[in-house]
Design goal:
heterotrimer, A mainly alpha (420), B alpha/beta (246), C alpha+beta (652), A: mainly alpha, C: alpha+beta, 4 domains, 3-stranded antiparallel sheet, 62% helix
Amino acid sequence: MSETSLTGSHTRTPLALRFPSVLIFLAVLGLFTLGVTILSEGFGIGVISTSFVKTLGKTLCLCLVALAMDLVWGYCGILSLGHMAFFGLGGYAIGMWLMYERTRLIVVDSLVASELPPTAQEISDGIATQIFGVVGASEFPPVWAFAHSLPIQLAFVVLIPGLFALIFGWLAFRSRVTGVYLSILTQAMTLALSLYLFQNDSGLRGNNGLSGLQNLPSLDAVPQATVSLWFFWGSAFALGAGYLLCAWIVSGKFGSVIRAIRDDEARVRFLGYPVDAFKLFIFTLTAVIAGIAGALYYPQAGIINPTEIAPIASIYLAVWVAIGGRGRLYGAVIGAAFVSLLSTWFTGGQAPDINLGFYTIQWVNWWTVLLGLSFVAVTLFAPKGLGGLVDLIVDRTSPNRHGADLGPDPGALREKEAEK
Amino acid sequence: MSTLLEVSGVSVSFDGFKAINNLSFQIGTQELRAVIGPNGAGKTTFMDIITGKTRPDEGRISYGEKGLSLLSMSESRIAQAGIGRKFQRPTVFEDQSVADNLMMALRKARGPLSVLMFRPTAADHGRIAELAGEIGLSRKLHSKSGELSHGQKQWLEIGMLLAQEPRLLLVDEPAAGMTPAEREHTTDILREAARTRAVVVVEHDMEFVRRLGCKVTVLHEGSVLAEGSIDHVTQNERVIDVYLGR
Amino acid sequence: MLNILRLLTFALAVAAPASAQQADAPIQKVLQEHGDIISKSSRRTIGPAIDALADSGLPAAREVLNRWQAKQMWRNEETGLYVFAEEVDSDTLRIFDVADGMEIGTAPDDDYDQLKPNSGIRGMIGAALVRFQLTDPDPAMRLQALETIARDAEAAHLQTLRGAIETEQDKAIAAAMVRLERLLTIQFAEDDADRIKAIESFAGDLGVDVRATLNPLVRTRLETADAVPETKDVARVLSPASDALPREDAYDLLVSADLAKPRISREDKRAALVANLENGAVAGVQVATLDTEAARDIAYAVLAQQGKVEPVATEAEIDATLDKFVFFERYIAAPPAVALAAASALKSIENKVAVNQGLDLGLDALSLASIYFLAAIGLAITFGVMRVINMAHGEFIMMGAYTGYVVQQIVPDYTLSIIIALPLAFAVTFGAGVAMERLVIRWLYHRPLETLLATFGISIALQQIAKNIFGTQARPLTSPDWLDGSLIINDIVSISYIRIAIFVLALLFLGLILLVMNRTRLGLEVRAVTQNPRMAASMGINPDRINMLTFGFGSGIAGIAGVAIGLYAKVTSEMGSDYIVQSFMTVVVGGVGNIWGTLLGATLVGTLQKGIEFLNPSNTLAAQTYMILFIILFIQFRPRGIIALKGRAAEA
């Protein structure tokens, strides 16, 4: 990987020029965005349906969260099984405002027609009944205290996942929980969060979740074809910016240090680096990125519920990154895009069934099996994932140490050497 | 010569086994010291305690002019305070280039934000080139350190230690797996380093220790058995007993 | 009398009975006395007739009541005399004398009317019969009588019962009678001192019947006055706007006692304003300004002044009025002394109930712990020995459960099927585990994160395959009959036999694993490989074989755990994922690589979950949430679990 080595020249060159992959990525993303816009119903010739634009927009958000996952796992070695929870928290934060504001407009509309002008209390009661009637409540839970304010909820998109990650990470890294322990702990955290949200008295509508998020308040007149493109552009912009940020972070000495932490944490400590602070920084930063991705994703999906936060979602995220190839940013993006689109295709019933004579393989039922097994295959035979294909094309094979190319995990290598 | 590190009355036990037993040890600011001892004498645990990897059950460790207690500090704080350590097995970051490894070791601010904002200056690159020359890796500067030979990795690690500019250098079996010529070179580097700082070398190999020509501390069962010149300790009855067996 | 005689002779002539009926027997007289209401057979009016029979003290009374209840009493249409009768055939009756049960002869049933008491009346007859049954020679009869009394107690029973106690010989029945007598004393005794004594004798008694008897005595009514009365029957004083007495309820009480002006709800006030809307204004106030409660209050007050609406209390007035009164609860169902005694007895019962609930909770926690232990011990073995995280462990549990289900489809006998299913489940999952180790895990040693992900891939594939085969519907795994039901220790503490069986199974496995690990060659080799694989290999132990067997063994136990879990929970394709996180928690909390640690971990996790569930019984989801949070915190303080390895072994 050429981007890992410091070039001999001392002059400052722009990031994108030093790392051609960044430039290529941004160019591809730009062309893709332009292409989709031209082909869309909202602004172009209408070859691509609005729902497919939404699917593509959502995929871009998934790519963004995969990028975050790659940074925290592929580069820093923390296999977090909780980043989809941060993604969901971001979605909930924006979803609360979307749902509150839209319901408020509806309630105010309906009360305007009544004989007396509504009091503030009547409006609030009306909104609460509309939103929480489904869980048998009619009062606003405390977590909705700022739901009326878009700026505050936007801040929450960043702050809530960030604070959550900060506190959890501080506790976990402080007590030196690493490796699989940490993975299990993050999984437990995710499970706890989703179980909590499943409760009706969590204040977030239990398993009903938040819905109707695709309708932007007071923009009812704007057709979904247009709104979907707005979000598509937003997602593309966020992905581009996120990619630049991540590339910048991993390019310099910081990238060296976090990769060193991934490979040998104790050694980095003895070099004098506060490893816990570095991990906490990366964990929190990626949680924030995940939160932003979620805030862009759920208005396109229209609905968020606690199932989206369940541990399985975060594990799928790890699957995408692994299939795409971790430890390289474009790998994560490729993996997320490839697997999630393929998954949509298979589970959407579009894939042709295979008739074996005695049994018909219906992909709706067998796709997960295929995914699981191909995941095992990738782990076993292609630890570099799809990104490894790029190496073949560019012919940048890794140094052939002792004939063993085992991916970024150093343990196996050292073990092998020790055996020799 | 003032004292840089003073270890007094330190004990540590693992599940009842006393690895270090009431150990006391001191070293001056510019001194080369060899620590020898048979297997299980507690040499590695001794280093673990100084570098903060293992917390002792009792005892005191004071470091530097201000008499800083190392017991309450984390590994990274201890390293930042100027204690560098080279492990028995060479541990360099194999996925990264020699230059990257050295750049990481270079004595700079270690906080995440300063590292994030850090951009190497010409002076930094110069220092790295200089270090690479010192450890004989000038031509390998941009190769992955995983591609280096075992001895080269040892040197890279020594180079990284030097880049840290520590005041106290703890070196665990530096000569293991080296050719005689490489050993010679290593001895030179260590002796050179000890002109400006304290260096503690843990070694099995008596020949290597003799070549260092410094004061020797013999550990046995977690405490100091003898201390003095190599000739002095090799003539010590108890040392002979311990080394040559009963 | 002449008439009767003539009829009698007629009857004799027709029916040619074997003997003459004793028309003037005392019992017959009693029956005739109430002849009308007996024939009318109405539940409302029948009482005196039954009482008269029961109180008559006649030896024949019991038989009469019995026959009456059994619809074997008939009345001669002409003479009005009562007889017992059995139907010989559809037209003929064999009749007996009510006085002594002697057969009189046969007669056509046209001459007789059958008494058909409805169920209500039969119940009343039954209650009256109780006093006879209490002295019945058959102990079962006497016990049944006690039950009847307990179910439908009457004041009259008290005396009867006291009489019966004196003659009762059977100790157990005597004890039951004494207990019932005390319960009846509490309810019906005239003398409060007797009642209190009886109440106090029940302090700490866990019987549901005691609580059912005492609870009505402590019924209270909410009352209000200027000051709390000095009488003893005040149960407690309540302050308005507390949890026990919301402000609105307190005020409504005053209103209903005509002690205060009515208040008006927001909705009613709004409706009143709307009703008085004129030309875009209410009482001269522009409608547009009526968008706060304060403005609406003012408008309403103006309306009230104009006499258009009822004046109502404002919030300030409500507060002022509430300040003037005190609210208290008064015992209404019993004299204060009795009520207080009952309250204190209930209190002591509550305390004892709490202790027993704690015990019950402990049993629950223990059984949950054994389930977690079973689910986690296989994981502890694979993780402890091989440092391999097996995310598919939960799916092995599921495979075991489905194996049990399939066996039950083939072998209908539940006992036999369980006996077959347990080893078969072990075999199936052992095979699956060995296959997985050979095909996947072997290639990923020392890459723990990748093992985690690869086994996760297997996990989702297995889950989906199970879903494709067995569907999403939950499949039952029926336990054998002898495992149905519960071991009941008292009214509160009980534990189902299935849970006991699972507990025993967990103990068995603990013993088995300890035995295998500490006493067999395999265990020795496993421990050797755990501690130093290279050294073990150089001593002739084949680590690959050991790893394979260990993994198979751990997976096999998961299969057995699956059968056990399937017996008490549903078998679904997702059941594995319900246990996997808890299992990991158990292993991590206990300390990796230690069987005792896993046991402790399971106990801790199980107790914790049950404990939190007890504190918040409505919400098991919250219980799990808090349990996980607790464990996350626990790991902060003991990152290596309860039993932690130290030194070099810990860094392997």
